[in-house]
Design goal:
The chain has 230 residues and is an alpha+beta fold. It is built from eleven helices and four strands; from the N terminus they run E-H-H-E-H-E-H-H-H-H-E-H-H-H-H. The chain has two domains: 144 residues, Gyrase A, domain 2; 48 residues, no CATH class.
Length: 230
């Protein structure tokens, strides 16, 4: 689901210290000194330096709805390419293979009426795609009927600061379930990429209540006290 590309900065803390050292006329030839300087920048929250480590990744199998929300985090000059609805052919005949099914919908299938309605929708949708293809309608026009739940794939590039600040909002229990899962999957993939990324994920990429010590949400999950209570 998440693939960290080799172009991603392997040692982000050291990279931060290297960039800061250039501006401070420090010794940038020693990786240990760069690492220490990078940690100083992080602990002092010199956020501009966080923009130097790059993250390039493939995000695959999430809904178009979720990816549309991903696009709203535009700070730090990210860029991305998305799976084309003009040239990419619809794959398979199984509805579930091509759509993200929310847990609440899966649970609703226990109700016979809801299960029947969903099955009717799946059948009618697949029949629509099939009949349009047979009628010679171009894929780019058939794509107008695709719902937001359709799975998609993007190649994404952004910096560490953008991801860290995004995690504060999107790891919150108030965030939409699929986006929260996407954020957790990215954290897991980065943790496996290198030890320095694991430190960043463990210490910096967390819900905003963990960052400030209280809940800012109007409807709190109760994980942390509200500011007025604190």
């Amino acid at each position: 689901m998440i693939t960290i590309l080799p172009e991603t900065t392997k040692n982000p803390i050291t990279k931060i210290g290297l960039m800061a050292g250039v501006c401070w006329n420090g010794d940038t030839t020693d990786p240990e000194k760069n690492y220490k300087r990078g940690m100083d920048c992080i602990l002092c929250e010199h956020g501009r330096t966080f923009e130097y480590p790059d993250v390039e990744l493939v995000i695959d199998g999430y809904s178009a709805r979720c990816i549309r929300e991903w696009y709203t985090h535009i700070g730090g000059g990210p860029t991305r390419l998305q799976s084309s609805t003009r040239y990419v052919k619809w794959e398979g005949n199984n509805f579930a293979d091509n759509f993200v099914i929310p847990p609440s919908v899966e649970k609703a299938k226990e109700n016979e009426e809801a299960k029947t309605c969903l099955a009717d929708f799946e059948k009618s949708f697949m029949n629509l795609i099939d009949s349009m293809e047979k009628a010679g309608v171009p894929k780019e026009d058939i794509a107008m009927f695709y719902p937001l739940g359709m799975k998609t794939k993007i190649v994404d590039k952004r910096n560490m600061r953008n991801l860290v600040e995004m995690s504060h909002q999107r790891l919150c229990t108030r965030a939409y379930w699929e986006y929260r899962k996407l954020m957790k999957d990215i954290c897991s993939a980065l943790s496996e990429y290198s030890e320095e990324w694991k430190w960043i994920v463990d210490n910096l990429m967390k819900p905003k209540c963990e960052v400030v010590g209280f809940c800012k949400e109007k409807k709190s999950c109760g994980r942390k006290p509200k500011l007025e209570d604190k």
